[in-house]
Design a protein that fits this description.
about 475 residues; alpha/beta; Rossmann fold; Serine Threonine Protein Phosphatase 5, Tetratricopeptide repeat; DNA Cyclobutane Dipyrimidine Photolyase, subunit A, domain 3; 20 helices; 5 strands; binds flavin-adenine dinucleotide
Length: about 475
């Protein structure tokens, strides 16, 4: 009898899971097992924080119940490293006579190497079934005419849209599978507590799908006009579910297409704007494959490695604590620490403030985000940081430094996002909340740690010198 092992990673769902669906496709009697392997020491080296691990733990508990209903024996195995994962898999496959191993691909350099090692070691006896599931189009499937990875988003998107028309991208249906429920897996927790309050996040794929449906119904058609306002629920807030794999990008697109009754390439601009973000998501994963140095703490633009970052400890602490005296930056950093999430516009503002106004190395911000974000994901996080720091591919031009005060005035005109995270600002009229130092009212809030005008010019000069 075949013994099929499904190896779960950041794809913690049963619906539209390429590896699981493929493993379940068979009428013959088969033995089905599933496993999730941790790599505690490696993950701590990569900076995965308690928020991500605690959240993963909650999601695994709900996945365990779904798998038990499908009659699949599931176990969570606590290991220290990817090396141990490889050893564990090789041994397990041997002792349990596994005939087929199913998994969905990951694109960071360490994960890819680990998967190659597994394939190398077990291949002669075991059939490997691996799938592109995290992204819409396989990395390597969207290349330039010269067969290179794209480094600029717009031509990538054009090619991506042409290619998607040629493939099937509908979600997979779980084959009907009749088996007696298996016992629900038990394991010692991956992590006992989070650093932020994560109680508002969906922890099961069913709840995550409900959130997706709510967004599609109520938010998709106004996305373009509301996406940049941090005080509105103008974006989907689905990133934790996409990052940990409670939902798939295929499901997102299928639901959007069902609402609008047309394929994405015929979407009106308001709704296409959201699809554009899903394409950015793919772009950053493709970049990880095309440019492995991105997984190794290296700048995409090699010449920016010579920047002499100031990395002033007091500035960094103020930035992390949300006490820089620049309200939009502090509000974002407090939102991050308290909830494990931050609005995209504010992510860009705090990242530019750290890397440009404070002239601190983008890697400091990247790893701090990695520690707190529930949606932490190397591709998107590294992409976002290197974009903001002008060290990345297709990055913000170095001379276009965001002014955090005008960003705040434009995107939070009533100062309600600011007041939510910095309650002392409610004592000020809305117009003064963006720059409290211009008000005569005394409030409990620090003065700015840096002059925005001179620090902006300093950053521009540093980057200009680099060009010479
Ligand atoms: C400095 C910085 C760091 C970031 N770190 C991460 C991270 O670790 N993980 C992460 O998922 N996103 C990251 N982003 C991208 C983006 O901020 C979040 O994906 C977005 O805020 C999530 O909110 P949402 O689900 O409401 O997004 P929506 O606007 O509703 O977008 C839908 C989905 O598209 C994807 N997406 C949206 N914007 C981007 C983007 N710019 N790049 C890649 N994918 C995107 C996300 O999966 C998101 O859930 C980062 C951005 C910046 C500027």
């Amino acid at each position: 009898m075949q013994h099929r092992l499904i190896w779960f990673r950041d794809d913690l769902r049963t619906q539209d899971n390429s590896a699981l669906v493929a493993a379940l496709k068979d009428d013959r009697p088969i033995r089905l097992s599933a496993v999730f392997l941790t790599a505690n020491d490696d993950w701590s080296r990569f900076g995965y924080g308690a928020n991500r691990l605690f959240y993963t733990e909650q999601v695994l508990r709900s996945l365990a119940k779904e798998l038990s209903l499908l009659g699949i024996d599931f176990q969570v195995v606590i290991l220290r490293s990817y090396l141990e994962q490889v050893k564990w898999l090789v041994e397990y496959c041997q002792t349990e006579e596994v005939t087929d191993l199913f998994f969905n691909q990951e694109y960071q350099v360490n994960e890819r190497q680990r998967d190659l090692d597994v394939v190398d070691l077990v291949q002669s006896n075991i059939k490997i079934h691996e799938f592109a599931d995290r992204i819409m189009l396989q990395a390597g499937d969207v290349l330039t005419k010269e067969n290179n990875y794209y480094t600029v988003f717009t031509p990538f998107k054009k090619r991506w849209l042409n290619r998607i028309k040629e493939v099937s991208y509908a979600p997979f249906t779980l084959p009907s599978h009749h088996a007696k429920p298996s016992p629900i897996a038990q394991w010692a927790p991956l992590c006992n507590a989070s650093e932020s309050d994560l109680s508002s996040y969906a922890t099961s794929e069913t709840e995550a799908i409900i959130r997706l449906d709510e967004f599609i119904e109520n938010g998709l058609l106004r996305y373009e006009s509301t996406r940049n306002s941090p005080s509105l629920s103008g974006t989907s807030r689905l990133s934790p579910y996409l990052a940990r794999g409670l939902i798939s990008p295929r499901q997102c697109i299928a639901r959007a297409e069902a609402l609008l009754e047309r394929p994405i390439w015929d979407f009106p601009a308001e709704a296409f704007s959201w699809i554009n973000e899903i394409i950015w998501r793919d772009f950053y994963q493709h970049l990880l494959v095309g440019f492995p140095r991105l997984s190794k703490n290296k700048a995409f633009r090699a010449n920016t490695e010579s920047i002499r970052w100031i990395n002033n400890e007091e500035d960094i602490t103020a930035w992390k604590n949300g006490s820089t005296g620049i309200p939009i930056v502090d509000a974002g950093m407090r939102e991050l620490r308290e909830t494990g999430w931050m609005h995209n516009r504010v992510r860009m503002v705090v990242a530019q403030f750290l890397t440009k106004n404070l002239l601190c190395d983008w890697r400091i911000g990247e790893s701090y985000f990695m520690r707190y974000l529930v949606d932490s994901d190397l591709g998107a996080n590294n992409g976002g940081w290197q974009w903001s720091a002008s060290t990345g591919t297709d990055a913000a031009p170095y001379f276009r430094v965001f002014n955090p005060v005008s960003q705040s005035q434009t995107h939070d005109p009533h100062g309600s996002y600011l007041a939510k995270w910095i309650p002392s600002l409610t004592a000020l009229e809305a117009a003064k909340r963006h720059a409290p130092w211009t008000s005569n009212v005394n409030i409990n809030y620090p003065p700015p740690i840096v002059d925005l005008k001179t620090s902006r010019q300093r950053a521009i000069d540093v980057f200009k010198d680099l060009r010479k």
